[in-house]
Amino acid sequence: MKAALSLALISALSASATKSISDIKRVTNLATVPNKFIVEVSAPAALASKRELGTPHEQLYRSLKARKISFDVENEYDSPGLFVGAALTLADTQAVSKILETEGVVAIRPIRTYARPKPVLIKAGISPKDAGLPDAESTHVMTGVDKLHAKGITGKGVKIGIIDSGIDYSHPSLGGKFGSGNKIAGGFDFVGDGYTGGNAPTPDEDPMDCGGHGTHVAGIVGANPGNEFNISGVAPDATIFGYRIFGCEGSTNDDVIVDALLRGVKDGMNILTLSLGGSDGWTEGTGSVVSSRIAATGRIVTIAAGNEGASGSWYTASPGNGIDVISVASVDNVVIPLQTIQVTGVTHAPIVYYATFPLPVNGTLPLYATSKTSDVADDACNSNPLPADTPDLSGFVVLVRRGTCNFTEKLANVAAHGAKVVLIYDNGRGFAGISVGDYTAVLIQTEDGNFLAEQLASGAKISVSFPQTGGTVNFDDPKGGLVSDFSTFGPTNDMYFKPALAAPGGNIMSTYPLAKGKWALLSGTSMATPFVAGSSALLLQFKGKNAAVGRSARTLFQSTAATVSSSKTDNDPLQPASQQGAGLIQVYDALYATTTLSKGELLLNDTAHFAGKQKFTVTNNGKKAKSYSLKHVAAATALTLDKNSFPALYPVPVSANVAQVSFNADKFKLQPGQSHEVAVTVKAPTGDEAASLPVYSGYIYVSSANEIVHTSYLGVAAALKNTKVVDNTDIFFGVQLPTILDSTGNPQKGAVNYTFVGDNAPTLLWRQLFGTPALRFDLVDAATKFTPTLKTRAKDSHVISFTQKHNGGTFAKVPILGPLLELQYLSRNDEQQETAQYTVALTNTFANGTVIPNGTYKVLLRALKVTGNPTNEDDWESWLSPIFGIAA
Ligand SMILES: *[C@@H]1O[C@H](CO)[C@@H](O)[C@H](O)[C@H]1NC(C)=O
Ligand SMILES: *[C@@H]1O[C@H](CO)[C@@H](O)[C@H](O)[C@H]1NC(C)=O
Ligand SMILES: *[C@@H]1O[C@H](CO)[C@@H](O)[C@H](O)[C@H]1NC(C)=O
Ligand SMILES: *[C@@H]1O[C@H](CO)[C@@H](O)[C@H](O)[C@H]1NC(C)=O
Ligand SMILES: *[C@@H]1O[C@H](CO)[C@@H](O)[C@H](O)[C@H]1NC(C)=O
Ligand SMILES: *[C@@H]1O[C@H](CO)[C@@H](O)[C@H](O)[C@H]1NC(C)=O
Ligand SMILES: *[C@@H]1O[C@H](CO)[C@@H](O)[C@H](O)[C@H]1NC(C)=O
């Protein structure tokens, strides 16, 4: 029998695995560190009468010892007004409730882990010979930063703390040196090279980057102009501090992030920027809470919204979900770098193909087309086999038309004749990246393919080559200026407006560690976030480095942003605000706006907590009287759940049912310095099924003769409390969930006694369709009379009978033998990711470590619905496990 602590948490199905239950791996997948918690205590001011008792930390430790709670201190925080407390490792997680009852303790939260940021695209070591790479100017032009630089507004005197993987300050465009007086003027390494998120940090003074991410971020904030790529940061004269919180490999944790945030405040940073986060949906983690408090004091905090657009809604990342933080979405750069082919034998400019890296093909090879004309729809498909006299194609580059069958089928057919390199030409479907498995094949555009096919048909001898350097061109991205596909969708489960706004983050060139090629092209909200940090430096330099300007920053950037369409087709609706926020930042407009709004976001909440009557103030800060008119433009309504209550994946379906908005007055006139209060009445849309959880949003434009600003609104046309939180279907694994896996990893069939020796132990498996504010597992008697809300497989439901009516419905009346696990603010699962499900391996102990006696039991799972009242039993979903025996 193992003296294991409470529950070990294991699991994970990798996204690429089949959805087979037996593939579930036994590795932890809850994004929290088992047994580590951050305790927050009252600041000394609140305990003035007790100062003689020592520091708040000493008082806390004394109280915990008096209560016989054993703990180790991992970290202490002492920033009165922001955060005072400690990160503790507890021997017994049941101590959590005792700690919460301890005098002076304000909160205790689990320590969340954050994976290393994964840029969507990484192209390192780009060469200056790759002429035509998108210089940073294209993003500056998209946002008006170029105009501010021309006026000499470059962030001088503003301090920006970058919390990331460190910075390679030896990069010449980042100043070449570290320390006071340099661009990278300070910072700290909180973790050391060897930190993985799962071991002890070894801090030092030197925040040198061994990853690359932080160096790229630093260049977006403040690279010096005048380099070989003509790149410059948004705020090249700002002073940067590097706070390193990632080792060379692995993840990081909330306890380290909080340390870095508070250090940044102590070092006098005006702006803190974090290009990191974990998909979440809640505003409540320690990192989120502390970031938000720092922002509320007038420092500007910019944090990435996340790169999980593929996973659908309600998924924005923490700590960016912190309420007062600026959570940043990504818009694609207007240009993307693509590769070209050189053509000989006919006169034609280099032909663009859709690839970031050159195809690794040497020399000049003759071109061979599989069809004589360019209009063969099923070119090289099974339905149109290559003729028997087709030559050996291994010495050729083979030209094949797109269409009828898939790429793999075409490529297999030409490969059967020896083909090694294939150009597929588009048939009008659209020029984009294609997936071709292990084949060497790329897409070219329709016109280019037609030209080559026709020239070959008319007898031309054409050869092509793939330049390995110097072949990169600036291609006008057909999706440039639109919200990046990968940018994560909000809102939060508590209906906050996340992300706040967007900045260029798709296809961004910036500095990279010298050891890793000096320059790189990356995509991600990690790249959009420092853009807003740099923009904030321009704002503070221009309007003054004070708390009032800091507090106004988000509203100012939101109200002057450019709202983004869902496509480049005229009259298509605006992209939902739950993905673009208030729109693409327009930094020049934000600084020079003469009309200001008191609110950049109107939070309408759900139908049960509907805040349909809203007010905001319009102020004319200009020198002339202005006549204003109001106009409402709705964005597309996002239908966020599918028919099974699973999150709807990208592209999130949209509906044209939108809110109706009316005002107290559509037009008004303001003298200089005057304000007007706009009263807004919003009627939520009704045309969509509440079960699809329609997230509606839109914009109220306030226009004068020479200026348009806007406020954004967002709500959900359903009551969140009706949303299912636990998956009770068999859709995902073909097995009804939740379930208990036996020691072979298969769903338990019939009664089983577990010995808890080696793998002989049960594992709970469940999926969260939606986040839950509270989830608990309790051990109950096998004969428990309780009717759960969720079905168990018929053959497992042994002893269930209807329970006596609980008067007052108090949840506490369900008789339990003891708690096994309690979780707060749990994120939903994501079928696109490793966290497709949660699993918990049971041990034969309660959460407090006490051994459970031999006998037969069930596990009772209870999950609180969003906005549910924890004391109301009806607001919880519940599930009773099959009977299992303990014989340990
Ligand atoms: C760099 O920028 C300068 C000034 O904007 C311009 O004249 C020059 O052509 C640019 N060089 C490259 C390589 O883009
Ligand atoms: C291309 O040529 C180089 C140098 O001869 C060689 O190292 C490389 O393996 C070749 N690549 C391919 C794909 O044949
Ligand atoms: C492509 O089509 C073939 C049938 O020819 C099919 O077996 C294969 O699964 C398809 N591949 C993809 C990626 O759709
Ligand atoms: C929406 O209402 C719920 C329930 O009252 C509340 O907890 C939440 O904070 C509200 N959200 C906002 C953004 O006001
Ligand atoms: C541990 O928890 C169990 C179940 O709640 C309880 O019966 C037992 O008394 C607890 N043990 C200690 C030492 O608190
Ligand atoms: C499990 O153990 C109990 C005694 O605790 C025994 O009555 C029961 O028959 C055992 N069940 C199985 C399936 O071995
Ligand atoms: C529990 O059951 C196991 C297996 O039957 C047995 O070895 C063990 O002694 C039992 N423990 C107690 C305390 O009875």
UniProtKB/TrEMBL annotation:
Q: Which segments constitute the C5a peptidase/Subtilisin-like protease SBT2-like Fn3-like domain?
A: 604-706
Stated family: Belongs to the peptidase S8 family.
| Domain PA residues, every copy | 377-449
Give a GO cellular-component term. extracellular space
Domain (Peptidase S8/S53): residue spans on this chain: 155-583
Native species: Mycena indigotica
- What PROSITE patterns does the database record attribute to this sequence? SUBTILASE, SUBTILASE_ASP, SUBTILASE_HIS, SUBTILASE_SER
Its name, as the record gives it, is: Pyrolysin
Q: Which domain of life is it from?
A: Eukaryota
Q: Where is the signal peptide?
A: 1-20
Q: Tell me the Pfam families matching this sequence.
A: fn3_5, PA, Peptidase_S8
Keywords on record: Cell wall, Hydrolase, Protease, Secreted, Serine protease, Signal
Entries under CDD domains matching the protein: PA_PoS1_like, Peptidases_S8_5
Gene Ontology MF annotations: serine-type endopeptidase activity
Give the GO terms filed under biological process for this record.
proteolysis
Q: What does UniProt list as catalytic?
A: 164, 213, 526
